[in-house]
Structure formats: structure tokens, C-alpha cells
Amino acid sequence: MNDKQAVALEAASYVKHDMIVGLGTGSTANYFIEALAARQQQSQLRVATVASSNISMIKAQSVGLTVLSLSQLSQIDLYVDGADEITPDNALLKGRGYDLVMEKLLAKAAKQFIVVADRSKLVERIGSQYPIPIEVMPFAWQAAKRSIEAVGGVGELRQNAAKDGLCVTSHGSLVLDMRFDANLDADQLNALLNNIPGVVEHGIFAKLATTILIADQGKIESRI
Ligand SMILES: O=C[C@H](O)[C@H](O)[C@H](O)COP(=O)(O)O
Question: pLDDT-based confidence at 118, cuts 50/70/90?
């Protein structure tokens, strides 16, 4: 079992009967979906889920989990998702898979938000490994980019993998991948980006995680 599987299995043990569970997106979240489905098959546990992306919804349905729509709910019990970066003060960078809107809605709607990661995700500073993904309304991308550049951001619209088109999110937004001055911390960047018109959502998740589980060579450390 690799570290992503181990930490996903640990997170599945937090799930209790009758919970509504938010499902993240990515390889670690996929392991959690599998672990949750296995728990449901092996025990009396019955849960309902809400997916943060179409791909997670399809994965969850394929392993027999019930998937609800967030439009039916204002709160969920638990959300489990991975992260691209985790800082010492527990801020997260997310969005390499660019389903930011649902991911942040679920993180906020959850009574408990458990982040699952291996130790490769630990960083000293937000944005040190990846640019900050910023979802923008398509018609506002130029205006939003200019506002972001005015606070020191440098970057471009994200292209698709074949580099012959732009990435478009599940909600029809474009994504700007932007780098910022190293002196700006996660809280400052969060406040700056929250204040820019045309920005739909961005990948800084500050003060949202209630538990962070880090796997390192089979051992799980729990933070917060
Ligand atoms: O949008 C993607 C999410 O933020 C993922 O949770 C993040 O990219 C981590 O992915 P993985 O578990 O595959 O390392």
C-alpha cells in the first residue's frame, strides 16, 4: 500500500453511519472513494456523498456510492480531499485539477474538512511548487488578469494538455495560473484574490481544514 492509499484509508475511518460525505478530486481522493465504498460493503455503514467534480461523481457511482447534488444541501458532515501544497500554518493550495468552485463550496459547507496527503505536499510557502490557479469568468479574463498583475501576479491562461486550446472548468470558467512575490503569505493572497471582480474562485484554502492527515512511509501524522 502506498502513502496516498494509507492516508485515504485512515480518513475513511472517520466516516460514521448516516453521514453526508463530500468527495474530493484527484488520486488521493480516488483512494478515499474506494476505501469508503469498501467500508460500506463490509459493514452496516450507509452514507450519501456529494462529489466535487464530474470525474469523482462517476468514480463514486461506479463503486456503488449514492451521490447527491449539492443543490439539495446547505451543509455536509465531512469533506475529504487532497491538496497540492500544505504550509506550516495549514493553508492549502488546491486546483491542479481545476474544479475549485465545488471544492471550496464543499470545504466551507462541511462540519469537518479532512485533508489527505503524502509528505511531498508539505511546503514552506504557498505557491512555492505551483502557480496559484485562479478561475475567471471567460469574458472577464483580461480585466481580472490586469487586476491580478496590479498586485504583482505574473502568469498566463492555462492551456489544455495538448497545448492546442484553453482549459475550461466544469463551470465554464478559464484558469489563470499566477505566481506572486514570495513575501505575500497565504492569508494576504487570499484576501487580495477574494477582492478582484471577475475571479470566480482561486486555489488558496486558508483556515478551512479541520484535520490534516499526512502519510510518510506508512506512518500517519494528524495535524490541527
Ligand atoms: O483540483 C485538484 C485537487 O486540488 C487535488 O486534491 C490535488 O491536485 C491533489 O491531487 P492528488 O491527490 O492527485 O495529489
Answer: very high
